[in-house]
Specification:
Chain lengths: 253, 309
């Protein structure tokens, strides 16, 4: 089974995003960037499928990672190759594409690469849209299984336990399919030094969005980006009795 | 103008998230119809028909709609999408699953998790884990939107819309296998008026339940947890409050042994009143709490139980 894993270069999850003073966006100058954490989980799971960890031997035979972004997204692809992916595709774009354009570009990559499974993060931690996987599945007319907490691959099908409100739902889809992963699927490994060195020799093909003939024109205009309203610290109360009295006076008890 | 709201329901009645999504729809303007997808969901459709301001309710049924499979919801909505200028769903796991799928089929840029309707084409939504709020204007003729329920008031009852049946679609490439839903007599976390949440300080699953459950029962509250507590296995995943879990905005939020990581704050900072109980006076949670008690939960929570009578 060939697995395609889309990965995004995004703000590091330990960095607090700061809004630019002119309200035009979030300031990413000199900010640490990393692979979107959900995507890292997708790469890890694909590598486990290849290693046969928790899966049958050679469940994944080839893992291709694709990133759509600036030239530096190559580093993100290298990170995925160091975890164990086989080769990469960088679709260079100097503008930040909207999820619909990303999905259309990925559709073109899928048509080129013909994977049996697209495994990807459920959302990126910058735009927080939680949309690309579902849209890619729709554009391909493929089934989807979002928010995966556990995946089993059988003959021509994927059985996925999904983390939904109120509990877990298990669905089985035919392959090819798009599966988006949630946080509890696995804990990604740290790439070892020998694997980081090996990753440097793996192939990364460079393309542009235009190569795929995708209409990436924006549909949304960012009017402004603002800080959320600040909450200020209230008061410390001495004990539970005082707390209950205060809450009663506020009418919440 | 006409807006379609896809309902969240439990088979017998609509959940409050539906009423809240109707409020967002009313802010966009025009006639509001509600689509109830399910299996044996006539009672839910009847309850949707009572929401004030609703023109009509469409009921679509199939086995796979009963499990809200995204492919089936998409195939049910597409034939009627032409009748609407906007299609709204609550931004819960079902809405997030099917809504972008509908958008892609309609060649529309989806707009996720809105917290404000500025005008019929302009919306505010949180980005970067709620650390920034983005105002975006859509140039698409049709809008496909998910609505963060906690950001809107619930539309009340008082309507008497008609219920029409439309064709419910299947999901030919996806099969429902099973589900494990957590059973609880407590209110639903996302809709509860009071939420008590526990953190890693509670130390074990036994302690978590021994401390949190009686307090929740006394207050008629839902129980939540920080991601740290969930990751440590003290609480089930669907208790998780935070950017990657549930976003809640109750009247009263009591955080016990939660330090207040950015990720957690993103899921509860819109609560009306926040109480923090933590033995570390420097814990970041105190910076956003209306009332704080510096102390060990082992003494504070029993005192609180006593003070509540």
């Amino acid at each position: 089974m060939k697995v395609l894993v889309p990965v995004k270069r995004a703000i590091d999850s330990n960095v607090k995003a700061r809004v630019k003073a002119d309200g035009s966006g979030v300031d990413l100058a000199n900010v640490k960037m990393s692979m979107n954490p959900f995507d890292e989980i997708a790469v890890e799971e694909a590598v486990r499928m290849k290693e046969g960890k928790g899966y049958g031997a050679n469940t994944a035979t080839e893992i291709v990672v694709v990133s759509i972004g600036p030239a530096q997204a190559q580093e993100t692809i290298r990170t995925a190759l160091a975890i164990g992916a086989d080769r990469g595709i960088l679709v260079q774009s100097d503008t930040d594409l909207e999820p619909l354009a990303v999905a259309k570009t990925l559709k073109a990559v899928v048509e080129d690469e013909k994977p049996d499974l697209v495994l990807m993060g459920k959302q990126s931690i910058d735009g927080d849209n939680n949309a690309v996987g579902q849209m890619l599945a729709a554009l391909l007319d493929w089934p989807q299984a979002t928010f995966a907490g556990k995946i089993e691959i059988g003959e021509g099908k994927a059985t996925v336990s999904r983390e939904v409100d109120g509990g877990l739902q298990t669905v089985a889809t035919t392959l090819p399919a798009v599966v988006t992963v949630d946080l509890r699927l696995n804990t990604p490994r740290y790439a070892s030094l020998p694997n980081i060195m090996k990753a440097k020799k793996k192939e990364i093909a460079t393309k542009t969005v235009a190569d795929y003939g995708v209409d990436a024109a924006p549909r949304l205009k960012v009017v402004k980006v603002a800080e959320p309203p600040k909450r200020s610290a209230g008061e410390k109360v001495a004990d539970a009795a005082e707390l209950v009295a205060k809450l009663k006076s506020k009418g919440v008890l | 103008m006409a807006v379609l709201v896809i309902a969240d329901h439990d088979g017998t009645s609509v959940r409050e998230a539906t009423n809240k999504t109707v409020t967002a729809a009313a802010k966009i303007g025009g006639d509001i119809d509600i689509l109830v997808v399910g299996q044996g969901a006539k009672a839910a459709a009847d309850s949707a028909a009572k929401i004030k301001g609703v023109r009509k309710v469409l009921l679509a049924e199939s086995a796979e709609l009963g499990k809200t499979l995204a492919e089936a919801v998409e195939a049910t909505v597409l034939p009627i999408a032409g009748d609407y200028d906007a299609i709204l769903s609550p931004a819960n796991t079902d809405g997030k699953n099917y809504s972008p799928r509908i958008a892609a089929k309609l060649d529309v840029a989806p707009i996720s998790d809105i917290i404000e309707v500025v005008s019929p084409d302009t919306f505010v939504r949180p980005i970067y884990a709620g650390n920034a709020l983005e105002t975006i204007q859509s140039s698409d003729a049709k809008k496909v939107i998910t609505v963060r329920p906690t950001a809107f008031d619930a539309a009340g009852d008082g309507g008497s819309a008609t219920v029409e049946t439309i064709k419910g679609a299947d999901a030919p490439k996806t099969d429902f296998v099973s589900e494990e839903m957590v059973k609880s007599d407590r209110p639903e976390l996302a809709a509860a008026k009071i939420v008590v949440s526990g953190g890693r300080a509670l130390g074990s699953a036994e302690e978590f339940h021994a401390v949190m459950d009686p307090l929740a029962d006394k207050l008629g509250a839902a129980v939540g947890a920080s991601r740290a507590a969930v990751d440590a296995g003290y609480a089930p995943n669907d208790y998780q409050v935070g950017q990657t879990g549930k976003v809640v905005a109750p009247e009263l939020y009591i955080a016990i042994g939660i330090s207040g990581a950015i990720q957690h704050l993103a899921g509860m900072k819109d609560s009306k009143i926040i109480v923090a109980i933590n033995k570390d006076p420097e814990a970041p949670i105190f910076q956003i709490a209306d009332y704080g008690i510096v102390g060990d939960y082992k003494t504070v929570v029993p005192d609180l139980m006593k003070a509540l009578g």
